[in-house]
Amino acid sequence: METVASAASFASSASPVAAVADEPSRGLFRTAWDFSFRMVLRYIKNSYKDDPFRTFLEVCLIGFIVWYMAKPKYNIGTNEIELSEKEIDELVEEWRPEPLVPALTEFERETLDKAIMIDGPNGTKVRLASGSNNKPVLNFASYNFLGFVDSPELGKHAVESLRKYGVGTCGPPGFYGTLDVHMELEKQIAGFIGHSAAILYSQAFTTTLSVIPCFSKRSDIIVADEGVNFAVQQAIFLSRSKVYWYKHNDMADLERILKDVNKQLVGRRGKNALPRKFIVTEGLFQNTGDISPLAQLVELKHRYKFRIILDESFSFGVLGKRGAGLTDHFNIDPHEIDLLIGALCFAIGASGGFCCADKDLVEHQRLSGAGYCFSASMPGILTIAAADAIHALEADPDSYLDNLRDNAVQLRTLLKRIPGLQIDGAADSPLIHIRLAPDTLVRMKRSGGAWTKTDIDRVLTEVAEEAQKDGVLLTRAMYVDDHERILPNSSIRICVSSAHTRKEVEKCAHAVKSAVSRVTSKKR
């Protein structure tokens, strides 16, 4: 009790001392506050003394903030329509989702039902899974231009590589997907074409889809041939660039558009004053079999300050003395082509694609090429197959290319003798399109009026079926009708190979002649 009392007396005696000690701190705080207030007031007076506009602007800003905070907020539910349970049930009952895939038309269903299945490996001779006759037929429907698809030597070496590289990398090139054979093939392709550098893509279609949007953006300009294939069309669409189309292989029309584009850019200022400008075309056109006049394209490129993007998917390994493509065909320096796109799945018989360009442009694609950054790299077995095919072509180009051109010229000559047909494509192109001549359609009977594209497609399908009975496999050229910018005329596409013999080429021409004669005679 004495201890508690003494503590209480001490506390009562100490409280006046604490109160006195707090007085200086409160006085110091008040002094600091007064000083700060005076400083702020002096700053405001000095700041607004000679600047009435600033005072007005900030008063307006404060007024806007007060108005915005005070105004009533928008209520999302104010405009909602209240439905009864019965109305909700009726709407749910009536709702039908849009199909993910559009329903097939009658003709598309017919085409799918008649699809040809190959039993066994592909090549110049194949066996068909359908039909009682299991004899091999001559294959003139495959892009096997040099016969590498069924080459036993290339196949044996590729199979041996499975022990070292397996069946795939399972990763993009920039993320554990690059093998030594990838880097070797890139150097080999660049050296074969004669360009500075090359980059590999795992798929031919995505090569084109990646390269063009990688360099041509929304504010840039593309002037493209209206006859380019579907992959190039889609790549141009993905670029979101401003696009001008010139008539197929018409250099006068191309020059007219280039002049107009440059006139539109005169006097432009600002961010988009100097857009990138590209001419986009193919080397060997898939849809027509024509060849681009590269010398004139290069001349126009320099005259009007454009860059060239050349898709050599079907000309690489086919055109030129060495098979190096369009630049080899016209003996033009490959460095004149700013971006040269090629495929390894057609003439070379492997898979994937590539782009040849200056080193800086190639390195840019390793960071910005969508197909390179986000797709698994090419399997080692296919990379080795492509390298071996290019080695074989380099070692003996004459044996492959001379025979290919002889076969193409021979078949084209024989087909031109068949009445009622129109033969399209360059003279030495191994891609040949045969179409029904207009007078042939006039002589053929059709109930219901004029011939439609579907009607002509049906006739050409019958022609291919009749040729198959004679031991020759042909195919009607098919397109994504709703997405083609200009839908090509109906045709049968014939692909010649250097592995075909002279007799086999003659047999193909004879089968086409007999098939056309039988089909057209039935419809007269």
From TrEMBL:
Transmembrane segments: none annotated. It comes from the Eukaryota. One of its GO terms (cellular component) is membrane. Residues 136-511 form the Aminotransferase class I/classII large domain. The keyword Nucleus does not apply. Keywords: Acyltransferase, Lipid metabolism, Pyridoxal phosphate, Sphingolipid metabolism, Transferase. GO terms for biological process: ceramide biosynthetic process; sphingosine biosynthetic process. Gene3D superfamilies: Aspartate Aminotransferase, domain 1, Type I PLP-dependent aspartate aminotransferase-like (Major domain). Its EC number is 2.3.1.50. InterPro entries: Aminotransferase_I/II_large (IPR004839), AON_synthase_class-II (IPR050087), PyrdxlP-dep_Trfase (IPR015424), PyrdxlP-dep_Trfase_major (IPR015421), PyrdxlP-dep_Trfase_small (IPR015422). Pathway: Sphingolipid metabolism; Lipid metabolism; sphingolipid metabolism. GO terms for molecular function: pyridoxal phosphate binding; serine C-palmitoyltransferase activity. It is an enzyme of class 2 (transferase). Pfam families: Aminotran_1_2. Its cofactor is pyridoxal 5'-phosphate. Belongs to the class-II pyridoxal-phosphate-dependent aminotransferase family. This is serine C-palmitoyltransferase. It comes from Coemansia guatemalensis.
